[in-house]
Amino acid sequence: MELPFAEPYKIKAVEPLRRSTREEREQWIKEAKYNLFNLPSEQVFIDLLTDSGTGAMSDQQWSEMMLGDESYAGSASYFKLKKVIGELLGMPYFVPTHQGRAAENLLFSAMIKAGDLVPGNAHFDTTKGHIEFRRATAVDCTIAEAADTNLDHPFKGNIDLHKLEEGFKNNPKDKIPLCIITVTCNTLGGQPVSMQNIREVSALCKSYGIPVFFDAARFAENAYFIREREAAYASHSIKEIVREMYDQVDGATMSSKKDAIVNIGGFLACRDKELFDKISMYCILYEGYLTYGGLAGRDLAAMARGLEEGCDYDYLEARIGQVAYLGKLLKEYGVPFQEPTGGHAVFVDAKKVLPHIPKEEYQAQTLAIELYLEGGVRAVEIGALLADRDPETRENRYPALELVRLAIPRRVYTNNHMAFVAACLGNIYARHEKITRGFRITKEAPIMRHFTVELERAT
Ligand code: F0G
């Protein structure tokens, strides 16, 4: 018998969790104006809001925190990180940033101007926010297969080369400052991009003289999928695949709160010295001096170690295996989700769970609230609330998919927690026909409204 995977670590410290009653949760979510971001974490039993900054650091990383060098300039911890980024990713230049969106801010300050077009595969919301804030447009060139949640496609994060080239042909080159490949593609379900697609996108962009950057938050999980699903890479190491991925691109923004398994931090890496010099100016302006970029020395040291740990095959197998395990249980309950399961999360298909709720009443948000009420599980809406209004027309944008993301923090929850979450959704699905009304917005911000939106029950 082939032996199953098991986590390549054991637990040294535990954090108590408190269960609550349905009555308490009814009250709390009402006080939170039906926005799960407003809930104090003590009111949550299992928190699947995000896998970002919520991972458990290893004892080695905690040791690095003690070894952190807090010098303002030239910190030893900076050089530790520089060495890892150079060796693992092959990127000669980098600046640390306080998190991923800060790296986006620096890169886009240097590269994007009003009226520009930035193609990519379903840009993450902060990426899109930073692009639109500069009066530029994020153009989604993801393959059409990604929108069919039933379809079992190995690389739903891939970019459609035809769509991409149409954009290149129909617009002047100086309006397309860069192309962004998000690995894995969070918005579409943590879906990976194949090495072949990365290569082809890179070659096409090169032929039009357009630089390519990774939004690299979950690059190691993407590398794992390439190893598992792309025949040519079955016997490669994760590090070899990672290096080959980065070899195709001009640079990357990184939220280290994901695959570098730290609670805060990010960086921006690139190959071009001229671009690096421009970015350096913005880094000093927005983040801090070039060798700390808004972080403590200990954060840099923990990040260097985390980048190595995040690329460990056995760790990735257990991590992505846990996500798949949750998917398997949901399937047993008949709950529809984006298939196959992604690297960091399961994305439940709210349109299919709650088909009676009109899209104007926010199907995914309604399901996320039901899930909280059922078992104190906090997930996040990836649907019409997140999609915001069109910046020009101010009309609500209704995306093709209404998803509830169950994002799994790294090395934090056990499979019993996953079984609990699946049972909650199983119960909701069993009574889904009785849920017929959703929510109405009472207050919203002009951009990225989902973080602070206030809602009431539609009647
Ligand atoms: N890019 C991707 C693909 C992301 O998923 C995120 C964050 C960012 C960029 C921004 O990084 O948070 O460090 O500033 N995603 C989190 C999430 C917030 O919940 O998926 P950040």
Report what the structure shows.
With 459 residues, the chain is an alpha/beta fold. The chain folds into two domains: 176 residues, Aspartate Aminotransferase, domain 1 (Alpha-Beta Complex); 251 residues, 3-Layer(aba) Sandwich (Aspartate Aminotransferase, domain 2), CATH 3.40.640.10. It has 16 helices and 14 strands. The strands form five sheets. Strands 2-8-7-6-5 form a five-stranded mixed β-sheet, sandwiched between helices. The protein has a three-stranded antiparallel β-sheet with strand order 9-12-11. The model has no long low-confidence stretch (mean pLDDT 96). The protein binds ligand F0G.
Produce a short descriptive summary.
40% of the residues lie in helices and 12% in strands. It is of the alpha/beta class and 459 residues long.
